[in-house]
Write a structure and sequence with these properties.
mainly alpha; 10% strand; flat; C2H2-type domain-containing protein
Length: 84
């Protein structure tokens, strides 16, 4: 099952990160409330961020960065230069 808490959750900190939009929230309750609206907002968003290396498109730049890091790790340096 999909979890709105990202893999970089730090158990020592109460800060939570939305896996859809990468927004940082103060605690799990704030994340839960945020996710109720974030899921609705993101479902209709246009995907304006295109991967320069393949046909992937994302609604949020942070999701594109994650995609490039996972799918094109050898091209990350080129992307940093491309997006600057």
């Amino acid at each position: 099952m999909y979890s709105p808490v990202s893999a970089d959750f730090n158990a020592e900190s109460d800060v939570q990160k939305c896996a859809l939009c990468c927004k940082l929230l103060q605690n799990r309750q704030s994340l839960k409330e945020h996710m109720q609206t974030c899921a609705l907002k993101t479902s209709g968003l246009k995907k304006h961020h295109r991967c320069p290396f393949c046909s992937y498109e994302a609604s949020f730049k942070c999701r594109l960065k994650a995609h490039i890091g996972l799918k094109h790790p050898d091209l990350v340096k080129d992307f940093i230069n491309f997006s600057s």
